[in-house]
Amino acid sequence: MPSQTAVLTLTAVAAAIVGIGAGVAAHATIGGTETPQVAARITTGGAITPHATAAAVVKANGTVVRSTGVTAVRKIATGQYCVDIEPNIDATKTIPVATKMWGAPWNSTVLAYSGHSACGAGRHIFVGTGYTTGGAHDVPFHLVVP
User: Fold this and answer.
1) pTM of the predicted model, to two decimals?
2) pLDDT digits over 9-28, tens only?
3) 54 phi and psi, to 5 degrees?
4) Sequence spans of domains, the chain
């Protein structure tokens, strides 16, 4: 006889699969397979992020792989980046989320802060990267501004 935990886990997985199927069916019924249309935005590398104000995939050296709503990324020091966002986005009112990119060292960490003075005021987000063992280090990252 399966344990209660196994039954609950299988029930949760089944519910998730049904939910995903319903979401796909609803999307197909509402508008087909096309990506929802958004106002013209600054994009690099073909990024499509219809539900994010801005987003970027950034290499450790500060090079932008792809982005939307981001006008530039400046690497100002080891493990320190300033992400410039479109003028219509007030960075001081956002809650940016950053995470390390796949392939980054397991002991690396990434932090995002929209009020850091190193990047200037207004439309800049500071991203700091390093290792949990101490010190700033260049780490590739993803940044999303909801």
Assistant:
1) 0.68
2) 333 333 343 343 444 333 33
3) -155, 155
4) 1-34, 43-145
